Amino acid sequence: MHILRFPSLSDDQFRGCVAAFVDSLSGEFNAAAAALRRLEGQAKGSAFVHEIALDLHRYGALIVLERWGALVASFGPHLAETRSAALVETAAERTQAAENILLAVNALLDEAGRYDGTTIEACRAAFDSAMSLFAAERADADEAAKLGPMLSADYKEGRRIFLEDLAAR
Predict the structure, then answer these.
(1) Residue 79 lies in a domain
(2) How far apart, in whole angstroms, are the C-alpha atoms of residue 54 and residue 35?
(3) Is it the case that residue 29 has pLDDT exceeding 90?
(4) pLDDT on residue 101
(5) pTM (whole model) above 0.90
(6) 5 part of a folded domain
(7) Three-class secondary structure of residue 83 per DSSP
(8) Going along the chain, which residue ranges are E strands?
(9) Residues 125-128: contacts with CB within 8 Å, 24+ apart?
(10) Is residue 68 assigned to a domain?
């Protein structure tokens, strides 16, 4: 990840990364849920294109979490005295919990013979649970978004670089 080459991140740069993280994770979950809706009622292997889309997004969510975990591990200790300290304090544990939820979803999907309504609802509930672990990050991103064009250049730079790192996966 390019952003990990930085010697440090300012609080605004980190908060830009926070916004990119929650938007990306939410996007992966929404896209996976949409793919599941298209697969509902079908047997595995009967709608290959939609299954590929599902796989892309369910594993994409794991990549987003892995990149977030790496960022927090690298810069978290340097942000202990900033406004973002509360976000960083439990980020590793929450990230691991979200990864565990997604691993359980992936096991459920891998073992299922069909995409029935019960399986799809369980996956959607799991996506919601994983996303709820990052409610503080979502609130921070929503608060910053209210500034619109008045966001600092550092915030925009941090967001841009984190998104570019995710796109380079």
Answers:
(1) yes
(2) 5
(3) yes
(4) 98
(5) yes
(6) no
(7) coil
(8) none
(9) 126/101, 126/102, 127/29, 127/32, 127/33, 127/61, 128/29
(10) yes
